[in-house]
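<derive_structure_tokens>
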Amino acid sequence: MKEENELIITIVNKGQSDSVVSSAREAGATGGTILNGRGTFNQDNNSILGINLKAEKEIVFTIVPSSKKKKIMEQISNRVNLNLDGSGICFSLPINTLIAKTKNNKTLKK
């Protein structure tokens, strides 16, 4: 039976994505995908769930084996100080289906 995978999504303030990726690698991830984003919050209420928001964001997607998810998320949280107000959020989602081309040009389906 093949190991299940998870998608870790980390949303941080602009300039923090390199720290997210390097800390995830140190904990066992092989890399990540970085997207730039912009929050669309109401300027009068610049918080969601008690988290203060800044407009410019970086979103990091990291696919990891389920067995490494907790360690990687903890490493990310510690490195970018997710325990501080307004520093970001990190969460995971299960991957039910995955289709990708491998280096040797085979199609991977899970």
Summary: The helical segments are 17-26, 69-79. The first strand starts at residue 5 and ends at 13. Strands lie at 5-13, 33-38, 47-48, 51-52, 56-65, 88-94, 99-101, 107-109. Residues 19 and 87 are 12 Å apart (CA to CA).
